[in-house]
Design brief:
Layout: E1 5-7, E2 10-12, E3 16-18, H1 28-36, E4 40-44, H2 60-78, E5 83-89, H3 95-104, E6 109-113, H4 120-123, E7 131-136, H5 139-153, E8 160-163, E9 170-171, H6 186-201, E10 207-210, H7 216-224, E11 229-232, H8 246-254, E12 260-264, E13 270-274, H9 278-287, H10 301-305, H11 311-319, H12 343-361
Parallel strand pairs: 3-11, 4-5, 5-6, 6-7, 7-8, 8-10, 10-11
Antiparallel strand pairs: 1-2, 9-13, 12-13
Helix pairs in contact: 1-2, 2-3, 5-6
Length: about 350
């Protein structure tokens, strides 16, 4: 039987983190309901001000912090006692402002990927109860972060999310040519990171498996292979509570396994997405002579040279239901979606046995 998951000072009933999905795919509604059901719900901070009522078209970076605080307030209305956090990409131009806004908004957990969050303990020093969690894909990255945090700030990660680049959706922390080569050992990496913390620091830091987790069998396999919990994202897209428009969710229902593949993001990272509309994404910016108004990323080939496409707008268009010219990120198992369900139904499927055992014990 699977037990609860403790991350820093926060504990959830079930060992599940809902992955952060920008732009506004995992907003207040999804994060709130996941937290209400006994998992960790994450609001994705990337592009959070778009369609928030605060963005005027020219105040993107200025409006994001208040939009994030607003999103967290709404999430806590759904789950007042839940563990709600924020996913913040290190690659974002306003990364530091968003970390501060997440704390102001009451985030209990901050999860950071798309770069190594070397200064995160400094940014959160005034809020020691907030759990800080890096996303990595290698033992080396986990070691670099741990040594920097320990030496510089006397702090270790409260948990580590280990993302499998061969299966995860969205931006991936691996070189394009290495993805799908068959060389990556996801659970070997997880066990090695757990052992590193035990051997180096004498601590049992929770290590979370991310990428390719779809059903209870995947969850049980992850736990059996040494993970302390799982992060799931794609599975929560075809739900009533997901913050995307219905047309976005329908893309998951309609896509075939062969429709899912890799793109090169203007952020300089590979990303996994539904590929059936890729021509329309780049064509949109060409036809409309789109310019970079937002500067959302520290490094961006579209901002710098006009290469590829504007990713925040492409993700935003998809979220609003324009799936002809919008970018739909997903993991390798998104094709398994065959109906719109609810967050509660997913938890019932994943943890029915645990819930039954808890009722008997009570």
């Amino acid at each position: 039987m699977m037990g609860p998951l403790k991350i820093g000072k926060h504990e959830v009933r079930y060992p599940l983190i809902q992955g952060g999905m920008g732009v506004r795919i995992s907003g207040w509604r999804l994060a709130g309901h996941v937290a209400k059901c006994g998992g960790v719900g994450l609001v994705a901070s990337a592009g959070i001000s778009l369609n928030s009522g605060l963005y005027t078209g020219s105040n993107y970076l200025q409006s994001n912090p208040e939009a994030l605080r607003q999103e967290l307030r709404k999430a806590y209305e759904v789950a007042p006692d839940g563990v709600i956090g924020v996913n913040i990409m290190v690659a974002l131009s306003d990364y530091e402002d968003l970390v501060r806004a997440a704390i102001d908004g009451g985030a209990k957990v901050i999860v950071c990927g798309a770069g190594l969050p070397m200064t995160l303990p400094e940014l959160t020093a005034h809020a020691p109860d907030v759990a800080i969690v890096p996303i990595v894909s290698s033992v080396r990255a986990a070691q670099l972060i741990a040594k920097k945090w320990d030496k510089g700030y006397g702090r270790l990660p409260d948990a580590v999310v280990v993302e499998d680049p061969d299966t995860a959706g969205g931006h991936l922390g691996e070189k394009l040519e290495n993805i799908g080569s068959g060389e990556y050992d996801h659970y070997g990496t997880i066990r090695a990171i757990k052992e590193f913390f035990r051997a180096e620091y004498g601590k049992a830091v929770p290590v979370i498996a991310a990428g390719g987790i779809w059903d209870r069998a995947d969850l049980l396999h992850a736990i059996a292979e040494g993970a302390d919990g799982v992060q799931m994202a794609s599975r929560f897209v075809p739900t009533v509570e997901c913050d995307a428009e219905d047309a976005y969710k329908q893309m998951y229902l309609d896509c075939r396994q062969e429709d899912i593949g890799l793109i090169m993001s203007p952020a300089g990272l590979p990303g996994r997405a539904i590929l059936s509309n890729q021509e329309g994404i780049a064509l949109y910016d060409q036809i409309n002579s789109s310019e970079c108004n937002n500067g959302c990323l520290k490094k961006c080939s579209y901002k710098e040279t006009g290469e590829r496409f504007c990713i925040v707008n492409a993700l935003d268009r998809a979220q609003q239901g324009d799936v002809e010219s919008g970018l739909v990120f997903c993991g390798t198992n998104a094709w398994k979606a065959d109906r719109i369900t609810t967050v509660q139904e997913i938890f019932d499927e994943l943890f029915a046995e645990e819930a039954g055992q808890a009722e008997k014990a009570a």
